[in-house]
Design a protein that fits this description.
binds magnesium ion, 7 helices, globular, Rossmann fold, four-stranded antiparallel sheet, 10 strands, binds adenosine-5'-triphosphate, single chain, alpha/beta
Length: 259
């Protein structure tokens, strides 16, 4: 079977190595994992200053997938950056698995990001000098010093998303959709309890997009949690709940909750 870019198509979910089963579930299913309260964030300065988050609240349980909708520029990526510990808030609190993320120092933040979060960035952020396989393996090597284990795990993930043929290529030689799938594999390599997925199917064809949503769902079934920013109806339908970010606040979108 050949994928649309010449690499083998993604391995069908029922024949793929299971995701999230290498390690035991990090938290009991249904446990409150993420608690965001009164989150505030402004960007810019002076007359160009803009309030993006204005008292946003969010809850996410272990094993749950929550989709976040909102118009372009409403602050969705900013929200994920704050929860993922790569940007700081102006007020409010973020608790993840009992850790007050908004109060962590630099060293603790690094550890938090490495051990608890798998981040699928909207703009991928692959390291240009590393091959696809090295990009995917990097978080595993940093977390545990795994060598051969990290390489074979990375290859399995690349295979699962249909980009194993790109394992030895540098990111700039890959299409946008291929880069996106490498970035997804990288975010999943450590079996982190929390996956922050920023429009993870935005550059993919429907078949590849479905493989990603199936994988994210599987991770939830193994006790991980997914916060999914999306504009796509199919992705929204995979979620347990949908929240809409508007005017700096999140509100449940009951109309979008799947039956
Ligand atoms: N550091 C910053 N300085 C100035 N403006 C910023 C900064 N970070 C974000 N912004 C602005 O804040 C707004 C929200 O950005 P953000 O990336 O969170 O939006 P988004 O909801 O993810 O949009 P999209 O759906 O297009 O990805 C944008 O208008 C962006 O230009
Ligand atoms: Mg965004």
């Amino acid at each position: 079977m050949t994928g649309c870019h010449g690499f083998p198509a993604a391995v069908p979910a029922d024949r793929a190595p299971p995701l999230g089963r290498r390690k035991p579930p990090p938290y009991p299913s249904g446990m409150q994992l993420v608690t965001v309260r009164g989150l505030r964030k402004s960007v810019g300065s002076g007359r160009a200053s803009r309030v993006l988050l204005d008292g946003a609240d969010l809850d996410l349980r272990a094993g749950e997938m929550v989709a976040i909708l909102g118009r372009s520029g409403s602050g969705k990526s900013t929200l994920l950056n704050l929860i993922g510990g790569i940007d700081g808030a102006n007020g409010g609190s973020i608790e993840v698995g009992g850790l007050r993320v908004d109060r962590l120092g630099d060293a603790e933040l690094t550890r938090y990001r490495r051990e608890r979060v798998g981040f699928i960035f909207q703009l991928f952020h692959l390291i240009p000098e590393l091959t696809a396989e090295e990009n995917v393996a990097l978080p595993a090597r940093m977390a545990s010093g795994e060598g051969a284990g990290a390489a074979s795990r990375s290859y399995e993930l690349l295979e699962r998303f249909g980009v194993a043929g790109a394992a030895d290529q540098l990111p700039h030689t890959l299409s946008g959709g291929e880069q996106q799938r490498v970035a997804i594999a990288r975010a999943l390599v450590n079996d982190a309890p929390l996956i922050l997925a920023d429009e993870p199917t935005g550059n993919l064809d429907p078949v590849a997009g479905r493989a990603v949503l199936t994988a994210l769902r599987e991770l939830c079934d193994s006790g991980r949690s997914v916060l999914l920013v999306t504009h796509e109806a199919e992705a929204t339908a995979s979620a347990d709940r949908v929240e809409v970010l508007d005017e700096g606040r999140l509100t449940p979108d009951s109309a979008a909750v799947p039956a």
